[in-house]
Amino acid sequence: MRQIITAKSAGFCFGVSRAVEMTYQEAALGGTVATLGPVIHNPFVTRDLEEKGVRSYDTVAEIPDGARVVIRAHGVPPEIYRQLENRGLQWKDATCPFVQKIHRLVAQQPEGTMILLAGDPTHPEVVGIAGHCNQPCIIFQTAEELMEKLQELENKGDYSYIMAAQTTFRLSEWKKSTESAKKVCTNLKIFDTICKATVVRQEEAETLARQADAMVVIGGRHSSNTLKLYQICQGHCPTVLVEEAEELEPFRNLFHAARIIGITAGASTPACIIKEVQKSMSRLDNINNDMTFEEMLEQSFKSTYNGEKVTGIVTGIKPNEISVDIGTKHAGYVPLHELTDDPNAKAEDLVKVGDEIELLVVRVNDVEGTTMLSKRRLDAAAGFEKVMNAGETGEILTGIVTEVIKGGVLVLSNGVKVFIPASQSGVPRDGDLNTLLRKEVSFKILETNRQRRRALGSISAVIREQRKELAKAFWENVEIGKQYTGTVKSITNFGVFVDLGGVDGRIGLSDLTWLRVKHPSEVVSIGDVVTVTVKDLDPEEKKVSLIYKKAEDNPWEKIKTLHQVGDVVTVKIMSITAFGAFAQIIPGIDGLIHISQIARERVEKVSDKLKVGDEVQAKITELDYDRKRASLSIKALLQDEDTAAEEAPVEE
Ligand code: F3S
To answer: Is the overall model pTM greater than 0.70, yes or no?
Structure first.
């Protein structure tokens, strides 16, 4: 019976998986996401990321302004961080922690050290490591090349040597190189920096290739670790390198002739492609066994794959993760940050043992026998659908304003960041968008782009609808004389507009205050909450006139209890005219002192005797309540004084 064996270490390594995840997370936030070179050398993933708005650039200079950069697992030299900083670009560092360890190692070497670095000098990881070396460095790809370069080196004996390798360097060549170096360099420290994931993958591929009649290596043709696997396997049996399952067809005959077929995959090959290759191979084979290859594979290898939706039963709860049984041989677990978006949430408050929950497979690790799952991402996917559908149904969504950005705000709703342009934010043109920060808002979706996972919303659309409803209710219930509480919305020279909730009413200047004011802003300010009375209505034109001044504040009522004609009062000159001066008796009532009533003698010019601000005594000579007019006289007061003086008894 023909056998198909997949290497257990095939597929994403820790560092690649981490970098891919970080890139997808950035892409989900919207905006432009840039990488320096493809995140991984896999055309399938690269295409998918491109569809989600992730673009790859060769240099920092090419990255557009405002883009958020993800530094891929290979790492970069320090110069790149400097360039990003100079451009003011934000970045997320997805450099694999194992590569970062090499960066620290080479950067910390003391003066007089020669660094011997095994690797491809053109590979980005090696370029990055070389950039972190602060001592001279020799890069070599084979033991022979190292020997040649060491022989050319002057003053060999003056150096201490350290030796490190690109994480994906071929193990057999590394061993040969270290043996050779030991013979030449007396003061040598060897740091085996080849990633164990790579070692395990290479060793497993070699073991498998030795027993197989044919091998399939899956991975990008530009991926160095995939090419190394291909070279290793080729040394033992006919080997085919494919990037996708469709490429298997031309090799049908090779597989027919093979009794044992081995499959392995590079560190940047997603599990779904491995699965596809397994399925395709099953279809390529026409032999009539009891079990198809696919069935055999299903039985012996993964029963779940990345991106699959599964149902799990909670079997254990720890502070940082929960365990779930998803019905496979793998131990399922959900890290706390994959359970919820809320950084303050506790696992035990969210689930209990025995709960059945829907989950998304994030990573199947056949080496460790574990499957990492996520509820958060599934919820986010459901949230994304909800947001996309709201664009079609017109449903009103709610969310929290998380960021003010150029041209608008971002609202987090159902796990999706929705862009609300400033013009749709409900904030006036000259207003401050920051007033919306961290507030819950209701909005409608105006535009969506499924491929780019973007949505554009409008708070104003909801406000407009709400105002329409309120306006309808207002006109059904309003009547003259009814009191309302509203907010001052705008102020003009002639009046004030008050938002009564769905309807704006106008207070004319004469209905605003009993006092004499030059501008309505002396009485109210925008944003003031005021109680007003409906003065008049025009339902046809949808116009409402309001009164703000109160009857009890009417100065003509007040003066009745304070003064009467004949009273002598101290008044303040408020204005001067050609025919007299107006003087305030009480706030709201200015009486006229006619030019003929200013002095005993004839006055040619009012300003010869009075000026604005003077306080003088005068007699009230008229209070006309109907015409709202008051008259004063200084002359009458003086005459009274004269008469009193004449009538006073003369002392002998
Ligand atoms: Fe890191 Fe090893 Fe992968 S170094 S990127 S985990 S191959």
So the answer is: no
